[in-house]
Amino acid sequence: MGVPALFRWLSRKYPKIISPVIEEDVGDAEFGHADGAKYQDPNPNGELDNLYLDMNGIVHPCSHPEHKPAPETEDEMFLDIFTYTDRVLMMARPRKVLMIAVDGVAPRAKMNQQRARRFRSAQDAKLAHEEKQRQIKEKELRGEMIDNAIKGKKLWDSNAITPGTPFMDNLALALRYWVAYKLVSDPGWSDLQVIISDATVPGEGEHKLMSFIRSQRLDPSYNPNTRHAIYGLDADLIFLGLATHEPHFRVLREDVFANQSRQLRVSDHLLMSEDQKQLLRAQDAKKPFLWLHVNVLREYLQVELFNPQLPFKFDLERAIDDWVFMCFFVGNDFLPHLPSLDVRDNGIDILVNCWKRVLPRLKDYITCDGNLNIESVEKLLGALAYKEDEIFKRRHDNEKRKEENDKRRKVMQEEDKALKAQYMSTVSKGKEKAPLAPVATMPLMDTSGKVVDGYANLTNKDIVNNLGTITKAHMSNAEAAAALKKLIDSKKNISAVAAVKEASESVTESTEVSESDNNTLTNDTSLTNDKKRPIGEVQEGEETEPNGDVVKMWEPGYHKRYYESKFHVSGDEAVNEVKKGLVRSYLEGISWVLLYYYQGCPSWQWYYPYHYAPFAADFVDLHEIVGDEGIQFKLGQPFRPYEQLMSVLPAASGHTLPEVFRELMSHPESEIIDFYPEDFEIDMNGKKMSWQGIALLPFIDEKRLLEAVQKKYELLTEEEMDRNTNKEAELIVSKANKNYKKFLELYTEAEEDSATPTVVKFKFLRSGLAGSAMKIAKFHIAGLLSSPLDMGNLPTLRNDQYMRVTYLQPAKTRGKSMLLNGYIPHVKALTQQDIDTITYSNNGRGNNYNRFRTPNDNRDYVNNGPSGTESYLQYQMRRGGYRAFVEGMLSGNSNNYNNNYNNNYNNNYNNNNYGQRQGRGYNNRNQNYGQNNQNYNQSHNNQNQNYGQNYGQNYNQNYGQNYNQNYGQNYNQSYNQNYGQNYNHNQNYNQNYNQNQNYNQNYNQNQNYNQNQNYNQNQNYNQNQNYGQNYGQNQNYGQNQNYGQNYNQSGHNSGYYRR
Amino acid sequence: MSVLPFSSRSQTTALKQPKQLFCYARDIDNKFLFDEEEVRKNHVKYYYLPDSELDRGIDLSAGIAKFQKIPLEDNLAQFDQFLIALEQWEQHEQKKVDVDVIAFRGVMRKLMTAIYDGDNNNEQDDEYTCSVVGFDGQVFIAENAEYESKRLQRERSAPPDEYRAKCEYSGYKFETIATMDKPWSETTRTELSQRYQKQVNNYEQYLVGVRTGIHDIKVLMGAEVDCVWDYMPSEKGFKQVLDHYVELKTSRTIETPKQMLQFETKLFRTWAQCFLIGVKKIVYGFRDAKLVLRTVESYLTEEVPKMIKENPVNKNPVHKRVNCMQALKWYGSILSWLKQEVSDGKSYLLVIDQGRQQLRLESASDEQNAQLRSGQLLTERFINWRQNTSRTQPDN
């Protein structure tokens, strides 16, 4: 899913989940961390037990960085990775477990996306290379000297970061060395247990981490208050953290929004001096990081998802599971998202609101430990279907509005520029715009003067002869522009002159502009601006421009158009068949994703066999479609590394595979050559950005591929065969580890039976890690480990200083979405104001939060995990208990006692009690959701908010400020005696028969603000005896019979009563 | 006859670290199982009651109609079964258990808290009596059959008190909803949610024999343990099994200072109960007048004395409050007194005399003595066992 989009949405909606990472100065590495912070020092960010690294989130930015110059050699890359990982570790300082997970062979469902990405990236690389060559030539013609080294350098193929390639092998060696080195040399690491799950272990990185966390929970001696942190760039990690139901969880990531330096372009790479490079590297090293606190997110979700009027019990863990399910629905890596749901468009909010409306009609939550209830899904999507039409229309309107605004702005700019271009064309404003030589290529500009990638193959003569057309194309002549654009986009080698002629002809031909078609272009500048009307299409008849939106979802009938154009079928029956197939596969898909997160991969072989998703309105009669037995999966087996490489890589990346396979990808006679098209279509599908388009690659037929590939196995060398096997994770510990002796026995004691390897089991209790260990054949205690890198001057290590074993997780059982016994909640981070913002900003009409409000992040928040270690903290303090009673007696006056009969959430054990003992306070913030609330509050600072069905009797004797808000169905008897300075704010919004007896006796010698707003049809006994200066406003709306004596004596009485 | 006044205290309170020796169980069919491994695997309960469950308003009187209650007669302390378990252990260990006193925890607790039980209305009518038998160099203490049958009669003839029955039921109900039969990782979601509808019974019991002691007197106590907090440790770690036990109790919610003081007395008794066998954790469920579970609080056994002593809201002067340390010293003095007074071959009746604030050790008649040694307290089986071993092993 679009990472920045989701992250931005989350951090705007729930601002306090973000806090900056506090980094201490680690001193200079060259001088050995002399005066800086050390690993064993207390962590200013709050202590952590476990850290999980999604290594791909480190390897990618280190090997092909966007904001700094690329490393030259593989060794440099690895050193970079080490430095970066070191930095991350110093921020987190896990004390018990560090797990490093590199993406292994992925399930088939993921491979399609990986394939699309890699094919795209190969295409982009090709273009970039061509662009680079062109720029070099140009610069040389100008007389600039380009270093030979740079000229010859080919951009590193990032597709090498796939399991099975030699690069991944080297990475594994490098990681293993580095971990051993740190364990031996850094005293802070002595108790750390490091698990490396490298590319040879099948499964995606983040899911290997997830499966690990789940397995640890099964150990009965597991600490339920373990503090976890996960590092990674993927937004999915947030959902992963929620899905583990480990409450003390955080996500560590770079702050991509802070001081974004621009992305380096090809020309930059060519011309940067060494100094500039150093500067960029240094800048990059200081990039700030962020914590995303999943525990605070859980607090927010507690408020957001709460519903007291369900036919079944409200369970926060189940509600969170449903929320995660909905977020997956809106965007995940395995399925295309529904056309009506888009993260950028508040898709999640829309779906959550549908959920809130639907839930009271259901018998249970939609998900249960990873299983979907199909009928509930049908109801949920039914609710969404109502909104689909509206969503599309609104989207279209927004887009149009934006376009209009853009147009208006650009018209101004373009007029200006056109003038300049005409009259100052010989003045060179920039090298690109003033060719010094008869250039064989002509750079094209769009209407605002920017250079457009790609070029038209026109000679100077051609340009001169067609100056008219071309100049017109540079201005806002839409048709010409479109024609030229069409030329450029179609990768056919038409004779340039003929093409231009054709274009200019068709320009004059098509004077008709058909309004209903809208060209959205791959470039992010709009060539299509016309002052008056939308752009017309310049074709003969068929509307299959790659970036044209034929479907037009804002107009009725889009269903049919969608299916007909995307799936190339016609007629209602065919469309229905396609629909059913699509819906069935989509349901399978969404079930698959859910099981993937909650129980582990349900099937290695399953994949979604279409490029598009159905509409929400298509999810009807699901029981028929799915059948009685429901959705079942066959587990199957993961692919082997080379099989995966063959499924995922384009022919251009064939160099990462053993030679024997390369011809399968490139030779025209190869039996599977149709899997590796050189060119493929990209369907923009109504989107604007090129990376949002869908690559229409053919789906791989597993059988054919495996057959072809497996035929070649006998030709592989032994080393190559070894790279092709899936292995297990490894555990590396230092000599000081509590389990060291046990592990040593694996190597020193003779094996009893060589057929069954010895397995050593160890429990969580001892060291904070549970599982079993086995011997590694190639690890010898007496041996040495030398650095696999040529650079860096890293020492050779002795194997007896650390220990390496094969690590197996505790046996899997079915996971349950519950909190564990002994869970101690954290100190609540949300204030009443935050809670109110969430409760009242969504009125079902979608998102109403202020987009321009600066997110007030939680700057000073330090996440310390559980609020204490005492086991009594497991239970909230509630009225009726012994401790609660004693505390209550202490915090009130000697004759008073706080009895807050609170049934529900938001009871804060450790809370701010102004003027009273911190930390052991009693909560005077009562939010009562639900039934039976009696609030006897005698003390300072009472905020009583009663939502829902409240049979509330609020007796408030307040010394201080009294703020009573009673919403919902309230049987409220509010009896307020206010002494002293009182800001008495009683708002009663009632919907039913309520006896609101508001006795307000205000004895004041001071200023008394009484705002009693009673919106109800009730009887109000208002005895307002106001002595002193009273600014009383008693507004009674509705039918109010006021019995009562309103004494307003003396002072200013500006009270007014309305009937 | 010998007398021990309530004011007597022992000098030292050097406590012995409690250690569990054996365990056995009573299953739902009122059968006793003595195979340790099987008991440990299948008859132990595990605690699980998350905080969020308390918001649903659990009714602790629900299902009382289906309550499988063991008939009162059958529920009299089954000392004979305890002796069987002890015998099995001794067989396995090939030696006589090295203690001075062998008793049921319930009895011992009553003796220990006697000094503060004065205001308690439990033993209003009668003076509590238990039987003491000296045999084989050890003091055996158990409930007195006559006294118990009289108490039973009293209870039967009393007018049926529905509320009281419900309260009693609520204790067992609380145990049922707060525990699971297998560790959490092996229990399914449906099993957990069905606990609220599960039939409650007070047949199932998990019982242990714990060796403890004070000063130089060693005691073997038989007791029922409610549940385990997280897991039963494996063989190697079995010495620390006592660290995992939890005592579950219910009580009325506290809303007035008076109720708070009443609770403290209860808490004191619970503390004594846990302390005697080394249970580390106490979990109290508070139910309101309608027997709805309102809140749960947990206490560590070791912090209870401090809590009671330092309760800042208690209006009573310190010397009038319940004092756990005093109770301990009193307990020490009981033990040394018993060891001193009881002689082999003789039987006694131990009476708690609240009126005169003393413990009375009265000699039992010969007839009673014979009865006690032939089934009422000591079983023939056990006597034979001991006599056989003492013949094969030299006395030490």
List the helices and strands and how they pair.
The complex is a heterodimer of chains A (1059) and B (396).
Chain A: H1 3-13, E1 18-20, E2 48-54, H2 56-63, H3 74-92, E3 94-101, H4 108-142, H5 148-152, H6 166-185, E4 193-197, H7 205-217, E5 228-231, H8 236-244, E6 249-254, H9 266-271, H10 274-285, E7 289-293, H11 294-304, H12 316-330, H13 347-358, E8 367-368, E9 371-372, H14 374-423, E10 442-445, E11 451-456, H15 460-465, H16 467-474, H17 478-489, H18 496-509, H19 558-567, H20 572-598, H21 622-626, H22 641-648, H23 659-666, E12 682-683, E13 694-695, H24 702-711, H25 718-723, E14 729-734, H26 740-748, E15 760-762, H27 764-767, E16 771-774, E17 784-785, E18 797-798, E19 802-808, H28 832-841, H29 882-891, E20 899-900, E21 925-929, E22 934-939, E23 942-947, E24 953-959, E25 962-966, E26 973-979, E27 982-989, E28 999-1003, E29 1008-1015, E30 1019-1021, E31 1025-1026, E32 1030-1037, E33 1041-1043
Parallel strand pairs in A: 2-3, 2-5, 3-4, 5-6, 21-23, 22-24, 23-25, 24-26, 25-27, 26-28, 27-29, 28-31, 29-32, 30-33
Antiparallel strand pairs in A: 1-7, 4-14, 6-7, 8-9, 10-11, 12-13, 14-19, 15-16, 16-19, 17-18, 20-22
Chain B: E1 2-5, E2 19-26, E3 32-33, H1 36-42, E4 46-47, H2 79-93, E5 101-104, H3 105-112, E6 129-135, E7 138-143, H4 145-157, H5 162-178, E8 179-180, H6 189-193, E9 205-214, E10 217-225, E11 227-228, E12 245-252, H7 257-277, E13 281-287, E14 293-300, H8 304-309, H9 324-341, E15 347-353, E16 358-363, H10 366-376, H11 380-392
Parallel strand pairs in B: 5-7, 5-10, 12-13
Antiparallel strand pairs in B: 1-16, 2-3, 2-9, 4-8, 6-7, 6-15, 9-10, 11-12, 13-14, 15-16
Helix pairs in contact in B: 3-7
